[in-house]
Design a protein that fits this description.
The structure holds two protein chains of two kinds. Chain A is of the alpha+beta class. Chain A has two helices and ten strands. Chain A has a single domain, classed as 60s Ribosomal Protein L30, Chain: A, CATH 3.30.1330. Chain A has helices at about 65-80, 110-125, and strands spanning about 5, 10-15, 20-25, 30-35, 40-50, 85-95, 130-135, 140-145, 150-155, 160. Chain A has a five-stranded mixed sheet with strand order 1-3-8-9-10, with no helix packed on it. The mean pLDDT of chain A is about 90. The chains are: A alpha+beta, B alpha+beta.
Chain lengths: ~160, ~200
């Protein structure tokens, strides 16, 4: 079943046709956005670091941001035969790895990443069917093309599927 | 000015900065645990974000990370990363217990690790401060025990706002022949490493 395991790095995005598995390791405050078209079984995974491209001085890498990353991933999937009406999303990550006494903006970056991701998906009318976000622990995720399940591995919180 | 335009002379100067800072930190650690501590030659790592996950023996390796902000004329982060085994050993030495004793994470042991991070970072930065005449101070430490990738991504995200890569000055502390104690990462932001190089006359 694991014919084709492809790694997605930080500030990176990839999509693949069935059968394949997309993996991203050690998500902290970053958010993993898993898109799935159940009919043609195309999967797409984006590993974004920051919420909005317009807030950053350097925004050449579209995969770095929630807004541009989701749109680029979606475009790539649609080009390869996915249909926007059939695509649903699952989210993981957005943790706060370190707790500082003063909760500065930087430390809330995980939460802001998740909020931005949801706003962008909503504006594109893509439903978020499940998520495992927040908390203060890292996650490794694997997205399977056969049924779009998303495996989430953690240290201390076990393994689960959403 | 971006990271790719640094030449080998600049990298050598940054390496020497790492050498002086971590030399001081290694001495502090040796005094603290009353044992000999060695260090390897510092490495300058300029990494694209997608490569970060491959440092420290893989993104999923469980590690202990102590993160401190750097304040003053130089801004950035210092991250002290220990493998869990080394962290346990360090805690036991500090608590005057047998080094192989089982360690539980609680307020006391975690606070001891944070304090180690604090002391090492302060000695690292005060050496840099003495060398350059710049005002450089550490912020309060924060601690996390989790996957290496998730921990290293925290400073990387800050850099993501302005750059597509991150510069780490990494030093490995070792004990005896090959027993690794921990890795020390100094990650100055873009303006700060330029300021460091300029102050030392390595860049006009």
């Amino acid at each position: 079943m694991t014919d084709n395991i492809i790694k997605v790095g930080m500030a990176d995005l990839k999509h693949r046709c069935h059968p394949s598995v997309l993996v991203t390791l050690g998500l902290g405050s970053c958010v993993g956005i898993a898109l799935y078209d159940y009919k043609v079984k195309i999967i797409g995974l984006a590993h974004i670091m920051l919420p909005w491209s317009f807030q950053a001085k350097n925004n050449t890498n579209e995969a770095k941001f929630a807004d541009t990353g989701i749109k680029l991933l979606l475009k790539n999937m649609l080009t390869d035969g996915a249909n926007i009406g059939r695509i649903s999303a699952k989210l993981a990550g957005g943790a706060q790895m370190f707790t500082f006494s003063g909760a500065s903006d930087m430390m809330r970056i995980g939460q802001r990443n998740v909020e931005a991701t949801k706003q962008v998906l909503q504006s594109l009318h893509i439903p978020v069917i499940s998520e495992d976000t927040g908390g203060n622990h890292g996650r490794t995720i694997e997205l399977y093309s056969d049924d779009g399940r998303l495996m989430i591995k953690t240290i201390g919180f076990g393994v689960k599927y959403i | 000015m971006d990271l790719t335009s640094l030449n080998s002379f600049h990298l050598d100067v940054l390496k020497e900065i790492g050498n002086i800072g971590s030399g001081n930190a290694a001495t502090a650690l040796a005094k603290l645990i009353d044992e000999k501590v060695d260090m390897k030659v510092p490495q300058i790592r300029i990494m694209g974000f997608s490569e970060i996950n491959d440092v420290l023996g893989g993104a999923e390796t469980p590690v202990v990370g102590v993160l401190l902000g750097v304040l003053g004329d130089i801004k950035g982060y210092i991250l002290f990363v220990l493998e869990e085994k080394a962290a346990h050993r360090l805690i036991n030495i500090l608590m005057c217990r047998d080094p192989s004793e089982k360690v539980e994470y609680n307020e006391l042991t975690l606070s001891a690790l944070k304090e180690v991070g604090n002391i090492l970072t302060s000695s690292y930065l005060s050496a840099l401060s003495a060398l350059t005449g710049l005002k450089i101070k550490p912020d309060v430490p924060a601690l996390a025990i989790d996957m290496a990738g998730a921990i290293l991504s925290v400073p990387a995200i800050e850099f993501g706002k302005t750059a597509d890569a991150v510069l780490y000055i990494e030093t490995e502390f070792i004990q005896g022949s090959e027993s690794v104690i921990g890795d020390f990462f100094l990650a100055p932001d873009t303006e700060s490493y330029i300021r460091l190089l300029k102050t030392l006359g390595a860049m006009c």
